[in-house]
Amino acid sequence: MSDRNRRLVLAERPTGMVDAETVRLEDADVPEPGPGEALAQVRYLSIDPTIRTWMDDAPGYLPPIGIGEVVRSGGVAEVLSSNSERYAPGDFVFGMTGWQDYVIADEGERTLQVLPPGVSPTAALGVLGVTGMTAYFGLIDVGRVKEGDTVVVSGAAGATGSTVGQIARLKGAAKVVGIAGGPKKCAWLIDELGFDAAIDYKNEDIAERLRETCPDGIDLYFDNVGGVILNACLARLALRGRVVLCGAISSYNEHERVAGPSNYSALILRRGRMEGFIILDYFDRFPQAQAEMAGWLAAGKVKAAEHIVEGLQHAPDALNLLFTGGNTGKVMVRV
Amino acid sequence: MSDRNRRLVLAERPTGMVDAETVRLEDADVPEPGPGEALAQVRYLSIDPTIRTWMDDAPGYLPPIGIGEVVRSGGVAEVLSSNSERYAPGDFVFGMTGWQDYVIADEGERTLQVLPPGVSPTAALGVLGVTGMTAYFGLIDVGRVKEGDTVVVSGAAGATGSTVGQIARLKGAAKVVGIAGGPKKCAWLIDELGFDAAIDYKNEDIAERLRETCPDGIDLYFDNVGGVILNACLARLALRGRVVLCGAISSYNEHERVAGPSNYSALILRRGRMEGFIILDYFDRFPQAQAEMAGWLAAGKVKAAEHIVEGLQHAPDALNLLFTGGNTGKVMVRV
Predict the structure, then answer these.
(1) B264–A267: do the CB atoms touch at under 8 Å?
(2) Neighbour-count burial of B32, counting CB atoms closer than 10 A to its CB (0-12 exposed, 13-18 middle, 19+ buried)
(3) Strand-pair partners of A151
(4) What's the sign of the alpha-carbon dihedral B94, B100, B105, B111?
(5) What is the rounded CA–CA span in Å between residue A53 and residue A45?
(6) Do A240 and A315 share a domain, yes or no?
(7) Site from B264, B277, B283 to mutate, A interface, most A CB atoms within 10 angstroms
(8) Which residue, B32, B81, B155, B164, has most beta carbons within 10 Å?
(9) Is the domain of B173 the same as that of B253?
(10) ipTM score of the complex?
(11) Residues A53 and A154 in one domain
(12) Does some domain include residue A297?
């Protein structure tokens, strides 16, 4: 181990995409674990769209990251030394590590958790982590997916979207349609993940392709993007259709107020429901969902798509990948 | 009775408010009741915002009114002569009478229904009719109103809104706030109907007044209007807040595409739900709801506010009242 801790701190609030001015690399002492604490070295960072929202000085489900604070981020770390019975050197732990080399684990409630046996560090951040849980609870609990449903998911080649489509199939959806950017991602959704159809929003007419692929309407739309795609899906909602609001990635870098979905009134005509959720609320139920997901993974029924970026210093670029659509699957940084 | 049947037929589709060109007064023969049919004279017409939507050539929950067809409308009629055991002369019947003097009742499923004993013709169209049922099922079934809720309703001085506020109180809401146009309506909501507060959207800053009247956020917002008021209420949604979409009266006369609610993403942060409904779906459950409502009426716990316009020929003006806000309570035409 080094005797220095590299930390990426928020230097100024971005107005659009994160750039060279947004974060600053700081060199700090490696923290000393006190009584009941352990020192862990960060191995992987989970790169999620929500990190971008925490950089804004706006009310959210968590407070904004302060200027000069380490960028808040999920991650997996390996315990190096421990003054706690909860942690042993060599253990992998996951939770909020931040964008830095070293982190202290303590014995509090909201601290880092030891990875269950058999779970790889990247799976802990991806399909078995917050990303996979977001797909699971959003689709099953909020969306109440049921047999025979026509399910559409946007951001379908992303970490959450790719998992949503696969779980929908396992839960009996009659048709699974993904919306993604570019023919390569679309082909991947169909060929590798077993989606029935994919819509390339960069090159195709979304409304027309939704008509073609969902002739009887959309029973469940899982929205990761907001904007024009949300609006187009609302217009095709089936009777008693459900819209699960997971995120609005199309707006996170927008400085201006984003237009709302003008087709929201389809919710009246179609007796539809649009509902948002925050995965933190489901934390207590993760173990049961992780057990089911682990079973699917082991049986090859769910594929974990991972997109690894090398080097802590590239975390900001990795974050931007989510917004340019440069990734396929879960983006992580190997520190 | 006259030997002529005056009928208001749709002459051309309006682009904004209904005007002199929209409907045409026709003079037709009084229809002859056949076997199993009865002839009834229309006494009251129910004037509802939805009539305006049926005049557009756009897909809806019912087909558009055809050019040359009698304007579709709810109403109450009195049976004059009958060839059916279901109807006796002197019976009052309610259902879709249309804007005309005479109507035929038959023995089909979707025909006119005889008014239950003790129910006045105007109550049958108002609190005990589709209007009251809309308030009842929207608030209780879709909105799941519960004790301690802070409830906000727009179009609060209208037929549905005024009933929503009163039922919310009866169901244990801690606070009932109405949004209406003008100080007179606002005073009426508080003084006559027992609302806790009223916001005059024509003269007050809606967002500011929502902050004042709902310091802990809105648990349930019953939306009759859409537009900027819906957007302002979304911004104040409490955790797990619910938005019941009943109508969007602010848009029915708009020719241009109306902007969507840009604050819809509050549904994510606040784990909120926005759901639409159409009252026709609840038809089978009307009797139970009407029984409860009749009890409240008899006990003076719900006041039926009625706004009567005289004369069939004024039905188009009566419809426009809903959009100019010229009414307080349920608009009906005495034919």
Answers:
(1) no
(2) exposed
(3) A176, A220
(4) negative
(5) 17
(6) no
(7) B264
(8) B164
(9) yes
(10) 0.86
(11) no
(12) no
Are residues A261 and B264, on separate chains, in Cβ contact within 8 Å? yes
Find the domain containing A209 and state its range: 130-280
Per-residue pLDDT tens, chain A, 335 aa: give them.
678 999 999 999 999 899 989 999 999 999 999 999 999 999 999 999 999 999 999 888 889 999 999 999 999 999 999 999 999 999 999 999 999 999 999 988 777 889 887 788 999 899 998 899 999 999 999 999 999 999 999 999 999 999 999 999 999 999 999 999 999 999 999 999 999 999 999 999 999 999 999 999 999 999 999 999 999 999 999 999 999 999 877 777 766 667 889 999 999 999 999 999 999 899 899 889 988 998 998 899 999 889 999 999 999 999 999 988 888 999 999 99
Cβ-based contacts under 8 A for chains A and B = 99
User: Do residue B74 and residue B135 come from a single domain?
Assistant: no
Cα distance between residue B180 and residue B199, in whole Å: 6
pTM of the predicted structure, to 2 decimals: 0.89
Is there a contact between B273 and A275 if contact means CB atoms under 8 Å apart? yes
CATH number at residue A236: 3.40.50.720
Q: Let me know if residue B291 belongs to a domain.
A: no
Same structural domain, B163 and B118: no
Same domain, A121 and A190: no
> Sign of torsion, CA A321 A322 A328 A332?
positive
CA of A274: which chain B residue's CA is closest? B274
Q: How far is B321 from chain A (nearest CA, A)?
A: 23
* A197 is a domain residue: yes
Distance between CA atoms of A230 and B261, rounded to whole angstroms? 12
Within 8 A of B221 by CB-CB distance, chain A residues are: none
Q: How many domains does chain B have?
A: 2
Q: Which residues of A touch B278 (CB under 8 A)?
A: 268-269, 271
